[in-house]
């Protein structure tokens, strides 16, 4: 018996599984580990605003905070007030307004001013010194990500193929990168080699459906974090059907931009604000679009903010549709905390955490390319525009109640209680579409209550 136990086993797993195991090991050691080290490099922050503009931005932030204690606790990862002391607050504001991890003597005057203003807002004194609270400083903290197997990327490839086929079926045309850049994204996209149309932009790919309508504007759509355009295929294909597009007037044209850095791929870093706006401008000019509707979902609202702030592109947009926007009241801690620091409990939180927050590309985009001060969209940025903002009551990322109250403020700065949740969509000025009992992105499937009223008038 002892001899049998010591004798080497002659059993081997199937050759296919051996090859797969070797490939997975090599992928982890040669791709994932080195890449995570490279991606942790320090962020290149935007150019620092002049002090007077920083002061105005700080005041604007405090003026739109409804609960100062909750605000501070959120940015301190839920720490109790007793652990949030003056130095903790100064450390947070050093990152938020000075784009730095550590402050020096040259910054004390400004940070003390911010701490004093915070005390007035709180209605109490901040204890001197430093407590045990740890501030949430997204672009200087070390971010976390989880390994994704080759099997996972095979699934992404499979979903990408379904998306490609579905969009082709719905009369969209893919505008790909040149052959030399086709290997900049993993998993590879061989169907892009079949496309005759090439993108006029340097890095952005997109889907285009020709615009033939004479009475309505075409639509530029920007998706959110997820597996690319797959969750939006039905939404995009239903736009013309819900607006009776196939009639004598023709079809509403659509350009759907692909943001690969937040689409569960291994690819280059997210584009900086100016480059993103410039490349989208090139795409719109290529198709002769001088005015269009700007529609975006979730993370796409950040890019929408850039496009509306950027003088070269802001004039190209008429009506604006923001679905589950994360860019409004972005100075509140909810988006940063819920996406990067919250410990998941419910099923939807685990889904967000594992599939989105811990993806390598998404984590890098939020941890090294997501600068709240340039991403935020204020209410006054929407003045003079026809804007529809769609919010869901059970959104697991955004404090939609706070966003809704902020947008519904009257001329005196007072919220219009709960009335704003039940108003009919008018398609004039600033409209709010409120959906009870729905979570982030769920309303995209509601054709009668969402797609038709929102897109018909736009």
TrEMBL record:
Top-rank lineage group of the source organism: Eukaryota
InterPro entries reported in the protein's UniProt record: AB_hydrolase_fold (IPR029058)
Transmembrane regions: 12-33, 150-169, 215-233
Keywords, ordered alphabetically: Membrane, Transmembrane, Transmembrane helix
Entry annotated with the keyword Membrane: yes
UniProt KW Chloroplast keyword: no
Protein name per its UniProtKB record: AB hydrolase-1 domain-containing protein
Native source organism of the sequence: Letharia lupina
């Amino acid at each position: 018996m002892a001899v049998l136990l010591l004798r080497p086993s002659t059993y081997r797993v199937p050759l296919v599984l051996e090859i797969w195991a070797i490939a997975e090991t090599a992928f982890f050691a040669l791709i994932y580990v080195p890449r995570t080290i490279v991606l942790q490099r320090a962020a290149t922050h935007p150019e620092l605003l002049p002090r007077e503009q920083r002061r105005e931005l700080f005041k604007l932030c405090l003026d739109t905070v409804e609960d100062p204690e909750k605000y501070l606790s959120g940015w301190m990862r839920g720490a109790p007030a007793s652990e949030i002391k003056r130095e903790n607050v100064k450390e947070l504001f050093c990152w938020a307004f000075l784009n730095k991890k550590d402050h020096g003597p040259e910054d004390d005057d400004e940070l003390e001013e911010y701490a004093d203003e915070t005390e007035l807002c709180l209605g109490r004194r901040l204890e001197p010194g430093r407590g045990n609270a740890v501030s949430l400083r997204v672009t200087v903290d070390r971010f976390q990500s989880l390994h994704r197997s080759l099997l996972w990327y095979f699934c992404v490839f499979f979903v990408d193929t379904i998306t490609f086929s579905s969009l082709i079926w719905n009369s969209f045309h893919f505008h790909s990168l040149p052959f030399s850049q086709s290997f900049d994204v993993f998993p590879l996209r061989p169907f892009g080699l079949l496309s005759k149309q090439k993108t006029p932009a340097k890095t952005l790919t997109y889907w285009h459906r020709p615009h033939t309508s004479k009475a309505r504007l075409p639509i530029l759509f920007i998706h959110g974090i997820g597996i690319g355009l797959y969750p939006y295929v039905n939404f995009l294909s239903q736009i013309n059907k819900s607006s009776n597009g196939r009639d004598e007037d023709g079809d509403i044209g659509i350009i759907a931009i692909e943001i690969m850095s937040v689409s569960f791929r291994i690819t280059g870093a997210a584009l900086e604000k100016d480059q993103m706006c410039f490349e989208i401008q090139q795409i719109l000019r290529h198709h002769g679009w001088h005015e269009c509707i700007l529609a975006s979902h979730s993370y796409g609202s950040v890019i929408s903010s850039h496009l509306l702030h950027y003088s070269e592109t802001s004039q190209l947009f008429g009506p604006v549709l923001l679905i589950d926007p994360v860019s409004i009241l972005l100075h509140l801690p909810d988006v940063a905390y819920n996406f990067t620091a919250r410990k998941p409990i419910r099923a939807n939180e685990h889904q967000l955490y594992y599939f989105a927050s811990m993806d390598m590309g998404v984590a890098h985009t939020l941890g090294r390319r997501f600068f709240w001060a340039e991403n935020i969209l204020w209410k006054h940025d929407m003045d003079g525009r026809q804007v529809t903002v769609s919010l869901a009551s059970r959104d697991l990322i955004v404090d939609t109640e706070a966003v809704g109250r902020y947008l519904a403020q009257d001329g005196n700065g007072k919220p219009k209680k709960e009335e704003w949740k039940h108003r009919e969509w008018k398609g004039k000025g600033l409209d709010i579409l409120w959906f009870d009992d729905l979570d982030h992105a769920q309303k995209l499937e509601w054709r009668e209550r969402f797609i038709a009223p929102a897109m018909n008038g736009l």
